[in-house]
Every structure is written in structure tokens, then in C-alpha cells.
Automatic annotation (TrEMBL):
It comes from the Bacteria. PANTHER family: BROAD-SPECIFICITY PHOSPHATASE YOR283W-RELATED, HISTIDINE PHOSPHATASE FAMILY PROTEIN-RELATED. SUPFAM superfamilies: Phosphoglycerate mutase-like (SSF53254). This is Bifunctional RNase H/acid phosphatase. It comes from Arachnia propionica. InterPro entries: His_Pase_superF_clade-1, His_PPase_superfam, PGM_Phosphatase. One of its GO terms (cellular component) is cytoplasm. GO terms for molecular function: phosphatase activity.
Length: 214
């Protein structure tokens, strides 16, 4: 059940060496740590989350179970004096055999499969997950948080954030994938009397990051 006034802020993790090199990195992959730039982004994100939420009376901080998300969430949790609660449901999509490959490699070697990946929510990379699998685990967790009082900050990944946006806006995978969700960006949802609403998407404050090619 949704609770009016509840807010969920979904944040993408900071960059790793995989992110910087355009390598796909899902659950079950190499699980890299943040690099120096990623740690700086995490500190910046904490400041922006703090400025946005202010002195909200009830704040919880959750992350995916992947290292880059937990490390990005740590400064946010420190700011609010709470721990980070890792949850596997917020992990990135499992890319299976594609994990560790670059977007350029996939466009060159598997163009047809890549088109199916982005256009068919049931398509599953060998050893990986489909977008339907992702929605099945992420969306119930998101709706649960929308039923909690106060504010829930979740540090997660592009896939889960995209899934939640597409759920609230009622859009399919193909248009949803055109959303730019930069590293360390914030996307906020709030429950109103009219139902859940997207407050903003891909907020970076004053910092500008060019779109990432994956």
C-alpha cells in the first residue's frame, strides 16, 4: 500500500574502472570497487542528497549488494548517522556472457542480439537475466518503500532505476532506455494524493557528466 508523503530517492553508484572504460558490469560479474573519481562522486552525492532532504525526520539508506553501490552509499549513511542496508534485489541486471565486454564490442560482434536486448524485455543473455527478471525483483521492493513513512535513499544501478521510472510513467523498455542516468545521479519519487509521481530524473547538481556509452 502506498503512503502519501513517502519519498524514495534512487541514486546511481559512482564510477569504477569498468564504468570509465565502458565495460558492462552486472550482478555476478567482477564486482569492482569505486575508483578515485567514484569516491569523489560519492562524497558529492552525499552533499546533494543532504541538501535535498534537509532535516527530514526519518531517513533510511539502502544499497545493492554490489561493492560500488555500498561504497557510494557509505558517505550518505554517514551524513544521516545511519548504516547502509545492502539488498540483493537492487543489484544491476545480470549480463551473463556479456559481462566485462564493452558496448563497442557488442555492437560490432552481436548487433542483432543487442537490438533484442534493448527491445524485447523477455530476451535473456546466456547466463544472465531478462528485463522481466529485473522488474520482478526490483518493482516489489520499490513499491514496498513507497509504503514506508519518511524517505528511503537507495544507491543502485542504471537497470533498477530505469525499471522504477518505467513503472511509474507506464512506458516500455525501448523508450525507457533513452533516459540518461549518469553515475552518482539522483532520481526522486514521491507519493501524492494522485498516486506516485516522478519529482526529477538524473539530477547532478552543478556537476555535468557526459552521457555514458554502454
Amino acid at each position: 500500500m502506498l503512503l502519501t508523503g513517502s519519498r524514495v530517492v534512487l541514486c546511481r553508484h559512482g564510477v569504477t574502472d569498468f564504468t570509465a572504460s565502458g565495460r558492462w558490469d552486472g550482478r555476478g560479474g567482477a564486482d569492482p570497487a569505486l575508483n578515485a573519481e567514484g569516491h569523489a562522486q560519492a562524497r558529492d552525492l552525499a552533499a546533494r542528497v543532504g541538501a535535498f532532504i534537509g532535516d527530514a525526520p526519518e531517513v533510511r539508506v539502502v544499497s545493492s549488494s554490489l561493492r560500488r553501490a555500498k561504497e557510494t552509499a557509505a558517505p550518505v549513511a554517514e551524513l544521516f548517522g545511519t548504516g547502509v542496508t545492502p539488498r540483493r534485489v537492487w543489484d544491476e541486471l545480470a549480463f551473463g556472457e556479456w559481462d566485462g565486454l564493452t558496448g563497442d564490442e557488442l555492437r560490432g560482434e552481436k548487433p542483432d542480439e543487442l537490438l533484442r536486448f534493448w527491445g524485447d524485455e523477455t530476451f535473456r543473455v546466456p547466463g544472465g537475466e531478462s528485463h522481466v527478471d529485473l522488474h520482478t525483483r526490483v518493482r516489489p521492493a520499490f513499491e514496498k518503500f513507497m509504503g514506508f513513512s519518511g524517505t528511503t535513499v537507495v544507491v543502485t544501478h542504471w537497470g533498477p532505476i530505469m525499471s522504477c521510472i518505467s513503472l511509474v510513467l507506464g512506458i516500455d523498455l525501448l523508450p525507457a532506455r533513452r533516459l540518461n542516468l549518469a553515475p552518482a545521479s539522483m532520481t526522486s519519487f514521491m507519493v501524492t494524493k494522485q498516486g506516485p509521481q516522478v519529482e526529477f530524473i538524473n539530477d547532478l547538481g552543478a556537476r555535468v557528466t557526459p552521457p555514458e556509452s554502454i
